[in-house]
Amino acid sequence: MKKQAPIGLFDSGVGGTTIWKEVVALMPNENTLFLADNKNAPYGGKTKDEIIALCERNTECLLNNDVKIIVLACNTGTTNAISYLREKYRHIPFIGIEPAIKPAALGSVTKKIGVLATQGTLTSELFQKNSNSLAQNNGIEFIERVGEGLVKLIESGKINSPEMTILLKKYLYPMVEEGIDYLVLGCTHYPYLLPQIKQLIPENIQVIDSGYAVARQTKNILSQNQLLNGATEKPKHRWLANGNIEILKEFAPDRNDLEISML
Predict the structure, then answer these.
(1) Separation in Å, CA 256 to CA 35, 164, 235, 237
(2) 187 included as an active-site residue
(3) 174 and 222 fall within a common domain
(4) Using CA atoms, how far apart are residues 82 and 72, in angstroms rounded to an integer?
(5) Phi and psi based region of residue 90 (left: phi greater than 0; alpha: psi -120 to 50; beta: remaining)
(6) Which first-to-last residue range defines the signal peptide (predicted)?
(7) 32 labeled part of a ligand binding site
């Protein structure tokens, strides 16, 4: 496998671009290929079998483009499908993303942690196993909220809409009343809501997501496999969409080395 091969990433939509930005910031020499499966967004309300089938299709697409590693930049995809993907595609490393509940548990004083995520993530076997372990061993109480409707509004370009504010208040205010001191964002779409979230909750509540940790783990695995790109030529970045390409363009950074196209 060539070191110059791109890092592959996929998500149900634009949320994965929050992970892409962290990856590019940490590894500026790397080529990347990001796939937004926004034709099938959101994944949160789908069955496990449906999620696995979509993730398998996305994986095949990235493999056909000769990527050297695959970042499953979707919490719902990771918690439901990554074990299956690692078993089937053993020749390529996979990096997943899960809600950052462990660092929140280690830092919490009130022992009450809010988790805003999709239904598919919160009901997954992997999340339930990890959260139950922390609850039993660390005395943590998790206040979970399904962010129903948030991804659809983001994918529709309605981040700053009145509808978004109404939903955020509905999900966040009960957590604040419960006394949380950490809020874990369990969906890669949600970092785009940080400005509104921080306006709605007290300053003492720390908001964390997994973006940087995923980028760091990706770099570690590439290094272990001697796949880091040491070339000095300008990297190439591609974003692909199979549904709405215009929304992808809205979230794209202003850089001349990024190509955005339909799949």
Answers:
(1) 19, 32, 11, 9
(2) yes
(3) no
(4) 8
(5) alpha
(6) none
(7) no
186 appears as a binding residue in the annotation: no
Residues 244 and 184 in one domain: no
Given the residues 7, 9, 14, 74, select the one marked as catalytic: 74
* Assigned domain for 2 exists: no
**Bridge partner residues of 241 (DSSP):** 36, 262
Q: What is the pLDDT of residues 40-93, one digit of tens each?
A: 999 999 999 999 999 999 999 999 999 999 999 999 999 999 999 999 999 999
Instruction: Quote the pLDDT of residue 24.
Output: 97
Is 76 annotated among the ligand-binding residues? yes
pLDDT tens, residue by residue, 92-148: 999 999 999 999 999 999 999 999 999 999 999 999 999 999 999 999 999 999 999
Question: For 201-258, what is each residue's pLDDT tens digit?
Answer: 999 999 999 999 999 999 999 999 999 998 888 999 999 999 999 999 999 999 989 9
The response to whether 182 counts as a known ligand-binding position is no
User: Hey, what amino acid is at 194?
Assistant: L
Owner of token pair 């006394």: 179
Catalytic residue among 187, 208, 214, 215: 187
pTM of whole model > 0.90?
Answer: yes
Q: Is 192 annotated as a binding residue?
A: no
Same domain, 149 and 173: yes
